[in-house]
Amino acid sequence: MLHSRRHATAAIATIAMLTTGEHAVAQSTSELETRLEAGATTSSHVGSIPLSAFALTPGFRYASPRMTASARASALLGLSQWQLGNSAAALEAYTPLLYGVRAEVAANASRLFHDQSVQNDQLDAEGRLHFMRQRAGIWLGSGVARPLRVAAVSNVNVSSGGVWTRVGAATLRGSVTSFFFTKIAFDDTLVDNSPAVCSTRLAAPTGASGPTGMRALVAEAAVGNACRHQSRLTDLEGTVRWEHKLGELTLRGGQRFGDRLDVNSDSRHWASAQAAVWITNQIAAVAGGGREPAQPTRGLPARSFGSVGLMLAYWPIPRGNVLVETPASLVHSFEVRAAGTALQRLTARIGGVETVEIMGDFTDWSPVPLIRRGRDAWELLVPMSPGVHQINIRIDGGQWIAPPGVPSLKDGFNGEVGVLVVNP
User: Fold this and answer.
1) Are strands 31-44 and 51-63 parallel, antiparallel or unpaired?
2) Helices and strands in the chain: count of H runs, count of E runs
3) Which of 291, 297, 254 is closest to 123 using CA atoms?
């Protein structure tokens, strides 16, 4: 389905918002997340028939301490045929943290699809300096974007900056992104045909080919009533993402600043919302919708959109943030059940963590990692003979504690150890 993350103001702004803050702390191990979304989507803009389609969107994200790679692609089924919809691929590289400062470089390729007649591809790259702490950060960046198949705009210079912070279960972000570019403007769109608006009047071009030839054709068709216009617009955008147990909610809103030639009235303000409710550890019901502004750098109009469907998510490689201690309150449940002759199945529900380990006399007191089975589900099969056993649990490399709900006793090292009784 068409996820609201792909409906941000512009590709550069989208990447900046998604890659600063949520995954700001460098990973100590690799992380791989795959998702598959399926559902109905609809969008509309002025002068078009609303597009409604079934969308199938696979995606993945891989992260390591030095780089992140991600990709998404939507296949739309409408009018009895499949059509490639919104797609994006991103590659980022990071330097090691030095006194809380990290340098970041991002390269992206994206495709936005409104309907058969309104679509656009773009390549962009950006460099950033990011100052961060465990629960907050600030960044400044600059880059360039190259829209493809847009005759009136060539390169776009982009400057961005923003802040993020975590407050309880919520992550708050704010960003400012400025776009500066040269486009072809016609006299009937100029404000009082002011010479200050037009930096250069176009002259009739001679033969050219490729993208340059496309711009030349536009100029040739407009000799005498067109000019090159220096455009600058600034987007101020805020995002709130809230996660709690089985629910997730993302709210986004923004305002655009610029003159009337660059900013239409329907693009001054925008807002969107996306919600997910986890039905099982790996399946969530998702819904979203809202309004996105026009993208003059890409030749795309403002539009409204909505989507509803299901999402399947899987994390085969746990992540590696390290906590100083392991709060027992993180463990929502812990159970041990027989799983055959001399085998016990350990299951735990622990949300918002990266690694879960157990050890006991049945492991010779060697740590053994549990396997992630979903968003907050962990599981492990262990050989355990009938009798009384001792067990401890550790989360994200923190302290070893007795599993909640299990009887405990002092372990002789100023700590506690859980006690399990396995019936014959």
Assistant:
1) antiparallel
2) 2, 24
3) 297
Sequential DSSP letters for 215-237: HHHHHHHTTTSEEEEEEEEEEEE
Q: What letter would DSSP give residue 331?
A: E
CA nearest neighbour of 180 among 107, 106, 258, 105? 258
d(CA 219, CA 213): 10
Closest CA to 20 of 178, 179, 128, 110: 128
| Ranges of the chain whose pLDDT falls below 70 | 1-31, 47-49, 79-80, 134, 185-226, 245, 315-329, 412-414
End-to-end, the C-alpha distance of the chain in Å comes to 51
Give CA–CA dist 272/259, Å, rounded.
24
Question: Which amino acid appears at position 145 of this protein?
Answer: A
Measured CA distances, 21 to 13, 76, 104, 139, 276 (Å): 14, 31, 13, 10, 20
270: left (phi over 0), alpha (psi -120 to 50) or beta: beta
Q: Read off the tokens for 140.
A: 């400044």
Cα three-residue angle 94-67-70, rounded to 5 degrees: 130
- Quote the pTM value: 0.65
E strand or H helix at 13, and its extent? helix 11-19
> How far apart (Å, rounded) are the C-alpha atoms in residues 15 and 299?
19
Name the token pair of 371. 């396997």
